[in-house]
């Protein structure tokens, strides 16, 4: 008896969803092993996490608030994945988007009507993210430099840039009134994104949802989306068909960077109301990669997965203040997110292939032997 | 001993480059078999936290080193399983390894964050050789793992070019179909070399915490050197000896940062000095790809492509 892999001719959506759910279950089991190792009870921790994330009104709205940047960074990763490009610099593009957005909020917004002020902050955020991805995009398009390592390394450069602006210098973005602990200068009211009632859900949610729908249309229903798929599958064929490969690469990377920059601007204008380096550096960019991979680069799927992972991340930070989850560090959610992605990758095989158990010789040998 | 500052800086460059040597040689072996493992940073970080925990529990840095090495190898098994057996996208799998490894390492390291590590690695001065002016201080007044890294480079270079299995390894990365037809097990070769790569990355991470940084500081413990090691593989054109030289070049960028800060160079803010190694790495990658003749020099032809016999 032998196990044989057979490629499926078509993949069913139900099948994919089932594999994703099973991946999450498998990841939770894997996480349970490490939780037990540290002496925590996995059952208690998971129950508390679920309760914290999804079983109360403010739990749900907090999870949604965390999902906002994750939708945007997830879309940033997804649009590049669509064409086999790997922009893993969303983390840094988010920081630079936050820096640009903060500058617009402090320098341009005061005195302006609120809608215009918000529009400027958001536009500058997108611009900052796009500018940060431009050098790797150009290097990839014209020189063939792998964008994976260049975009990632720029994350560290962006982090130090942000630290310099707040901790290392008397920059315009730094609050000059406090000398004890350096922090970002508070934004004027005009630049605050409106929030939903007393929750932390801000206007960024609408922006993120709009971006998801626009991207879905752009990738699935337009000529440009078709070009993206062709370039991703076969650059040679694309060139033959008259599609400019270089231009497509640069445009897709710029869209990706702009989306990540939007996430950064949304965080500073919607949540912290100042440039706050430690509050921003919580892996939104890296988690966006997981979101995109789990959503299989589908913009609408990104929204669903981002809400799920947003809940997980929100629960992770809530755990520390919950009696039942005491002592479990916030990092447990990052570990679980990584585990979910690993399990989903393993599950991908069952989406693409059929497992067959067979007795005796492979078909190709027995077939030839028949008269 | 009153050595000139630049001599001490070069000595520090060798030490700073040593984690890169381990990780880059490991990655060269994995990539030569045809498997791209982007998870170096994750494996190094898990190796580092495991090394700290084991060294603190046992009081022996050697136990720490062994535990860290094994942890890196353990994480590599996951990548080998996903990319060889499950034929997953190697890029995504490698990224998943970084995210999972970082999450697991920071989760395990949470209770020890900031604690100083008592039993560090002690320097081993090689008699006679260390007395050579300048060179002696830079190369032969280091800790034992620096010398061990040279051994690893020499062994890897010999293995890849002078042994039968080394030839099989290269065949597997260049043309797995041919290797398969020759009767070699592509899957086994890939598993073994990805795992050896992980062991070496784990050792690099262990070295980072045992000899380089004063305490565990989460993801900042390795601060992206795993990614620099990946760039180094391209820079070295997949050759171990060149990886050693490259590691010291990048090590110099890492060490210069501290030397300039210590020397009190006020003209350049500390944050900009910290950006140097990353910017240098990006610059090197761009220049390398600009000279198109050597773009793919030494790169295994089947790098990153899963091998499925029935789909030849």
**What radius of gyration of chain A results from the CA coordinates?**
23 Å
- Into which percent range does the helicity of residues of chain B fall? 55-70%
Mean pLDDT of chain B: 89
Tell me the CATH architecture of chain B. Answer: Orthogonal Bundle
Structural summary, described in words:
- The complex is a heterodimer of chains A (371) and B (312).
- By secondary structure, chain A is mainly alpha-helical.
- Chain A has a domain at 67-296.
- Chain A has 15 helices and two strands.
- A two-stranded antiparallel sheet of chain A has the order 1-2.
- In chain A, helix 2 packs across helix 3 (57-81).
- The longest helix of chain A is centred in the middle third of the chain and has 30 residues, at 114-143.
- The two termini of chain A are 24 Å apart.
- Chain B is an all-alpha fold and 312 residues long.
- Chain B has one domain (5-311): ABC transporter involved in vitamin B12 uptake, BtuC (Orthogonal Bundle).
- Chain B is 69% helix and 1% strand.
- Chain B is globular, with a radius of gyration of 19 Å.
- Chains A and B meet through helix 5, helix 6, helix 12 and helix 14 of A and helix 3, helix 4, helix 10 and helix 12 of B.
SSE blueprint:
The complex is a heterodimer of chains A (371) and B (312).
Chain A: E1 2-7, H1 13-37, H2 42-54, H3 57-81, H4 90-108, H5 114-143, H6 147-168, H7 204-221, H8 223-233, H9 235-240, H10 245-272, H11 277-280, H12 284-294, H13 299-319, H14 331-352, E2 353-358, H15 363-369
Antiparallel strand pairs in A: 1-2
Chain B: H1 5-32, H2 40-58, H3 61-85, H4 90-109, E1 124-125, H5 135-139, E2 141-142, H6 144-162, H7 164-174, H8 176-181, H9 186-212, H10 225-235, H11 240-262, H12 270-290
Antiparallel strand pairs in B: 1-2
Helix pairs in contact in B: 1-6, 1-9, 1-10, 1-11, 2-3, 2-4, 2-9, 2-10, 3-4, 3-9, 6-7, 6-11, 10-11, 10-12, 11-12
């Amino acid at each position: 008896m032998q196990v044989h892999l057979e490629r499926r001719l078509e993949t069913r959506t139900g099948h994919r969803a089932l594999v994703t759910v099973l991946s999450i279950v498998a990841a939770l089991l894997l996480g349970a092993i490490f939780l037990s190792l540290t002496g925590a009870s996995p059952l208690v921790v998971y129950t508390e996490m679920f309760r914290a994330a999804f079983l109360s009104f403010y739990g749900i709205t907090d999870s949604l608030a965390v999902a906002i940047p994750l939708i945007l960074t997830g879309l940033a990763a997804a649009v590049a994945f669509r064409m086999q490009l790997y922009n893993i610099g969303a983390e840094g593009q988010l920081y630079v988007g936050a820096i640009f957005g903060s500058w617009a909020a402090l320098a341009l917004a005061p005195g302006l009507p609120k809608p215009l002020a918000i529009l400027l902050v958001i536009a500058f955020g997108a611009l900052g993210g796009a500018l940060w991805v431009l050098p790797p995009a150009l290097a990839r398009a014209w020189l063939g430099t792998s964008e994976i390592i260049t975009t990632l390394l720029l994350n560290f450069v962006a982090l130090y840039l942000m630290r310099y602006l707040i901790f290392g210098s008397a920059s315009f973005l730094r609050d000059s009134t406090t000398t004890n602990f350096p922090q970002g200068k508070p934004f004027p009211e005009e630049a605050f994104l409106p929030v939903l009632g007393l929750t932390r859900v801000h206007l960024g949610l609408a922006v993120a949802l709009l971006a998801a729908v626009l991207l879905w249309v752009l990738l699935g229903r337009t000529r440009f989306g078709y070009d993206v798929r062709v370039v991703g599958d076969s650059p040679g064929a694309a060139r033959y068909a008259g599609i400019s490969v270089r231009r497509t690469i640069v445009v897709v990377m710029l869209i990706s960077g702009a989306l990540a920059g939007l996430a950064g601007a949304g965080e500073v204008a919607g949540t912290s109301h100042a440039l706050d380096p430690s509050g921003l550096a919580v892996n939104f960019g890296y988690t966006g990669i997981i979101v995109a991979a789990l959503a299989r680069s589908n913009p609408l799927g990104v929204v669903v997965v981002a809400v799920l992972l947003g809940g997980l991340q929100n629960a992770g930070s809530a755990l520390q203040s919950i009696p039942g989850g005491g002592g479990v560090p916030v990092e447990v959610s990052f570990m679980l997110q990584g585990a979910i992605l690993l399990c989903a990758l393993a599950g991908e095989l069952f989406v693409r292939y059929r497992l067959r158990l067979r007795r005796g010789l492979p078909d190709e040998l027995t077939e030839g032997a028949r008269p | 001993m009153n050595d000139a500052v630049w001599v001490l800086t070069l000595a520090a460059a060798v030490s700073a480059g040593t984690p890169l040597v381990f990780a880059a040689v490991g990655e060269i072996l994995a990539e030569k078999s045809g498997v791209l493992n982007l998870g170096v940073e994750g494996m190094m970080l898990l190796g580092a936290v495991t090394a700290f925990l084991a060294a603190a529990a046992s009081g022996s840095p050697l136990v720490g080193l062994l535990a860290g090495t094994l942890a890196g190898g353990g994480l590599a098994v996951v990548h080998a399983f996903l990319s060889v057996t499950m034929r997953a996208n190697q890029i995504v799998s490698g990224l998943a390894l970084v995210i999972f490894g970082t999450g697991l390492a920071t989760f395990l390291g949470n209770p020890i964050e900031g604690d100083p590590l008592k039993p560090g690695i002690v320097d081993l001065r090689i008699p006679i050789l260390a007395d050579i002016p300048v060179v002696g201080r830079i190369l032969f007044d280091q800790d034992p793992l620096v010398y061990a890294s040279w051994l690893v480079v020499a062994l890897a270079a010999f293995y890849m070019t002078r042994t039968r299995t080394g030839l099989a390894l290269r065949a597997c990365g260049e043309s797995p179909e041919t290797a398969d037809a020759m009767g070699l097990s592509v899957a086994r070769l890939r598993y073994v070399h990805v795992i050896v790569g992980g062991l070496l990355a784990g050792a690099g991470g262990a070295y980072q915490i045992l000899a380089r940084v004063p305490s565990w500081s989460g993801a900042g413990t390795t601060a992206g050197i795993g990614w620099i090691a990946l760039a180094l593989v391209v820079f070295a054109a997949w050759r171990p000896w060149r990886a050693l030289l490259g590691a010291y070049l990048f090590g110099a960028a890492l060490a210069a940062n501290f030397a300039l800060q210590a020397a009190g160079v006020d003209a350049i803010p500390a944050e900009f000095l910290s950006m140097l190694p990353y910017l240098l790495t990006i610059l090197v990658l761009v220049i390398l790809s600009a000279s198109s003749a050597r773009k793919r020099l030494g790169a295994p032809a089947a790098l990153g492509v899963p091998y499925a016999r029935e789909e030849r």
